[in-house]
Amino acid sequence: MKFEDLLLEIGGFGRFQILILAILCLLRINLPMHFLLHNFLAATPSHHCAIPHQEAFVNLTVEEVLLISIPRKPDGTFSSCEMFSQPQFHLLLNSSLQPENKSTIQHCQHGWVYDHSQFTSTISTQWDLVCEQRGLNQATATFFFIGVTMGAMVFGYLSDRFGRKTMLQLSLVCSMVFGMLSAASVSYTMLAITRTLTGVALSGLSLIVLPLGMEWVDVQHRTFTGILSSIFWSVGNMLLALAAYLVREWHWLLVAVTGPCLLSIVCLWWVPESARWLIAKGKVKQAHRHLLRCARMNGRKDFSVSPELFLSFHLSQTLTRMAADKSMGGSYSYISLFRTPVLRKISLCSGVVWFGVAFSYYGMSMNLTGFGLSIYLSQFVFGVIEIPAKMVMYVLVNRIGRRQSQAWTLILTGLCIGANIVIPKSFTSLRSVVAVMGKGFSEAAFTTVFLYTSELYPTILRQNGMGYTSFVARLGGALAPLMFLLDEVWRSLPEVTYCGVAVGSGAVAFLLPETLNVRLPEGIEDIE
């Protein structure tokens, strides 16, 4: 007797499951509000060196003061990081002249002046994270994803040990606390630490929501569950654009995107623990109570299985796993993912795929300029395009399978990134269309990988598997923003890197097994 057989008795997709999914989807909105917050939190407006003693130039216009104080770049714009040590008054006669002495050019000595027309304040303007300190600005996103990476390992293990719902509650409470502490940061160091801890906390939410929903629905509705959950990520994406447009000051923006965690904590009260997990852990009475509640809500009042039958069901599952338990040393851990041949291959290949998905997705998501749209509109459009991409994937993963969908969405993402390398900057409309297409393919790859991975691992190792792959994905997310610093080596090197990784990881996806219309594996013997 499999758990799917029990679900058929109580209703595999009724009012009970719809209630659970509605709440879990609302919880998922919190994620992109923080995961993509760097686009606005650390935005760098146009700036130039602060010019001392400007009162001496009262007879000059602002443009003329800049002309004699700030050198121009080859494209004719004023330098952001350099200034003249002495005013170059001769440039007033002919602005095309060169400075009289190259040695008069120096780095900014008196701070910077920022354009506040778009942002009232960001962490870049708060702590002058520009020019030589530009790396610290990009590192803010990296610190957050390092936190998410650490949290993936912690919450993957703890949710398998102490339960999905308990760890989800802990994740939300900690996210609320550390998010508010981030908003109250008085130094860059404090912000870096609290954003890292926020990443650790949110990792639990990222890791647990989808598997918890999956473990309550039948085989026929697993794909729908994955797609629906993913759509609410896109909703959060669009809400982030709206919040950032309305709140231009970074402290209050952090408050605005952290506030929904409080509502999520309240809503989680109505979500039950995973009955699959309870049965696997021998907590038969609790599982029995939740399943009876499910049957009542779904109108299956004739369902009346005794706790003793549940106990025998649990014992039969345990006996079928005993041989696997013995070979695994009697316990399950992350090492268990690599001990048997088929699981080892799945774990290695899925790790590569997750790295490629996250690396290319965040590489595209954090590059909102150069397409002829405002940063807010780019963020919103990138969120909107994700929804039809998910709808298409709902059909494709059930038609051509998970493996083909995963591989080709990644490869096409890479090709779109590569196309924008060769399309001239002046073709802003064409570049925007290609970028939006690439973002759609990238989100389709992310949607598929969540669904696909949750079907690859057995119940007893599912959260460990999701924790491991999430760990690898967050490494990709942590490295993605740092790639933008490579433009100092070669302007197109970041895009070339994103393109190569996406195509390569897409090719690796062909090595994974197909899971279309296959029952969720319960034990390791089902995999091997």
Give me the secondary-structure topology.
Blueprint: H1 3-10, H2 15-28, H3 30-35, H4 38-41, E1 47-49, H5 62-69, E2 82-84, E3 105-107, E4 112-114, H6 123-127, H7 134-162, H8 164-183, H9 188-214, H10 222-246, H11 250-258, H12 260-267, H13 275-280, H14 284-297, H15 307-327, H16 341-365, H17 375-399, H18 402-422, H19 428-456, H20 459-479, H21 493-509, H22 524-527
Antiparallel strand pairs: 1-4, 2-3
Helix pairs in contact: 2-9, 2-10, 7-8, 7-9, 7-20, 8-9, 8-11, 8-12, 9-10, 9-20, 10-17, 10-19, 14-15, 16-18, 16-19, 16-20, 16-21, 17-18, 17-19, 18-19, 18-21, 19-20
InterPro entries: MFS_dom, MFS_sugar_transport-like, MFS_trans_sf
Transmembrane segments: 12-31, 139-158, 170-191, 197-217, 224-246, 252-271, 346-364, 376-396
Protein name: Solute carrier family 22 member 7
